[in-house]
Amino acid sequence: MRALKKTIPHLFLMAYLLVILYPFLFVLFSSVKSNNQAIAANPFGPPGSIIFDNYVNAWVNAKISTYFFNSLYIGVLSACLSILLAAMLAFAVTRMRYGRISMVIFQLILLGMLIPNNSLLLPIYGMMRRLDVLDTHLALILPYVANAIPLSVIILAAFMRSIPGEIEEAAVMDGLGSARLFARIIVPLTVPAIVTVFIVNFLGNWNEFLLANYFLSSDELRTLPVGMVGFRDAYNTNYAQMSAGIVFSVLPVMIIYAVLQEKIIEGVTAGSVKG
């Protein structure tokens, strides 16, 4: 009976996993099939012969390579900048003990999470126009960094509060100032939470569509979500190449999760148990 109780949750989780992976397996199989007829003949089965020309055509002819690298560098750069700013702010409000000022700043950060990002589209557009950065990647990097700071600060602050104060006191006794304490002690200890924040921010930047669609008009500057809309319109009758483009769009996120999954779990659960 005890073994049955342990088995039932695993069965539900396996069924849930199959439901989640089934559509992606369909896309993956379709991306290496020769044409629409091969997909229609066996839509959910593996291909009889693997055709990689769809990936080559999507990468080169449909400019997926340009959109891919635009999204990659914008997403990584924005995530890194938001982590740097959020880590310094979290360190200030949790470890530097400014009293009520720290509490007020943290409350303002929480207030920033209550404002829907879509409602800020027009104000952000006006700010980017006054800064004269529209139709440049900077028009996306600045809002991405700003939008990511509230959640990043909350996650990093929760982790930093769990760091024992004795470590900080020992570092101060060794002559470390605030800057070196932050760089040499706090940041290395906060790596699991930083990895988690990086994944959350990168995923949000990678999938963001609204700002990228309105702020960028040059085709060579577009990100992958915006480029995929044009790709869909141009190849809406070629499901094999459409599937190849979809695989390109989800591949970086899957690789990051596969490589950093232990750090992600450690960062999410950090600070939940003390003692």
TrEMBL record:
GO biological process: transmembrane transport
Coiled coil: none
Localization: Cell membrane
Classification via PROSITE patterns: ABC_TM1
Keywords, alphabetical: Cell membrane, Membrane, Transmembrane, Transmembrane helix, Transport
Any matching Pfam family: BPD_transp_1
Gene Ontology cellular-component annotations: plasma membrane
SUPFAM superfamilies: MetI-like
Domain called ABC transmembrane type-1: residue spans: 68-260
Main location: membrane
Bilayer-crossing regions: 12-32, 72-93, 105-126, 138-160, 181-203, 239-260
Membrane topology qualifier: Multi-pass membrane protein
Family: Belongs to the binding-protein-dependent transport system permease family.
Full protein name: Carbohydrate ABC transporter permease
